[in-house]
Inverse folding.
């Protein structure tokens, strides 16, 4: 492997020469080939192109103008498209599939399986590979994380109490099933908030904000449902919690609290069988 090349990353690089097989771009002091079939129409020496750096089937550095589903160190939902005696091949948006060796698989894979993988680098060979065995790849230093922080989530699994999530592309967290108020599936990307930083350096995550912000959010959900229903919502304080959760994705407690705020503000009227919008 060429030392210093940013394998697995997107870079902008100048075209420095042309050849029969394509264009050569200067990347980290080295001239690296962009194959002709991937050269943008009209590109020539002196242009600056945005390219992804990886390796070909012979482990030589090569460039592509295609963008993968994930860069080095990132997590993404990928599909198994082929198998070999050594592992599985994944579609990640490039002509060359990404390889997931058996030793990096959390379970045996089959063609058509879709799982969250992390893109990793074999420092010895310079090859990119995928791992679905994610635990060794999380960052367990959560000293900078605080309760209440807004975070980006990617669901990567389920256990008996909730959904396992990648937090901000680095940490691992858990959304408790009884606090989700919606189905969570592997590969779902969503926004959440840190509920608690645990002693084991994992994070408990909620999908709703807390305090006054949570009430404001719940009020807006109710108002949107009212507008979508032509000013009428067939829910009230005696409605079953399951119905409220199914229609509004919130707990009955949150619904009653937000509804009370809207009623006091004279934005809704409480009528038999439901709520009417007054705005």
């Amino acid at each position: 492997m060429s030392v210093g090349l940013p394998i697995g990353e997107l870079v902008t690089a100048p075209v420095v020469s042309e050849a029969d097989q394509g264009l050569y771009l200067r990347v980290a002091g080295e001239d690296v080939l962009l194959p002709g079939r991937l050269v943008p129409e009209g590109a020539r020496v002196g242009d600056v192109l945005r390219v992804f750096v990886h390796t070909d089937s012979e482990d030589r550095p090569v460039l592509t103008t295609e963008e993968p589903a994930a860069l080095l160190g990132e997590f993404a939902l990928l599909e198994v498209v082929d198998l070999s005696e050594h592992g599985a091949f994944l579609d990640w948006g490039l002509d060359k599939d990404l390889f997931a060796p058996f030793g990096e698989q959390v379970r045996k894979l089959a063609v058509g399986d879709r799982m969250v993988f992390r893109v990793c680098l074999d420092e010895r060979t310079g090859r990119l590979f995928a791992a679905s065995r994610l635990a060794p790849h999380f960052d367990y230093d959560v000293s900078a994380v605080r309760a209440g922080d807004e975070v980006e989530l990617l669901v990567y699994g389920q256990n008996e109490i909730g959904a396992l999530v990648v937090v901000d592309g680095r940490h691992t967290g858990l959304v408790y099933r009884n606090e989700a108020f919606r189905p969570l599936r592997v590969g779902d990307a969503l926004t959440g908030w840190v509920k608690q930083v645990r002693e084991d350096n994992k994070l408990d995550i909620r999908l709703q904000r807390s305090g006054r912000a949570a009430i404001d959010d719940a009020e807006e959900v109710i108002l949107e449902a009212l507008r979508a229903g032509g000013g009428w919502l067939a829910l009230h304080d005696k409605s079953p919690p399951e119905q409220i959760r199914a229609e509004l994705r919130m707990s009955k407690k949150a619904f009653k609290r937000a509804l009370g705020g809207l009623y006091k503000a004279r934005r809704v009227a409480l009528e038999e069988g439901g709520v009417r919008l007054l705005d």
Q: What stands out?
A: The domain at 10-64 is CATH 2.40.50.140 (OB fold (Dihydrolipoamide Acetyltransferase, E2P)). The mean pLDDT is 92. The first helix runs from residue 177 to 180.
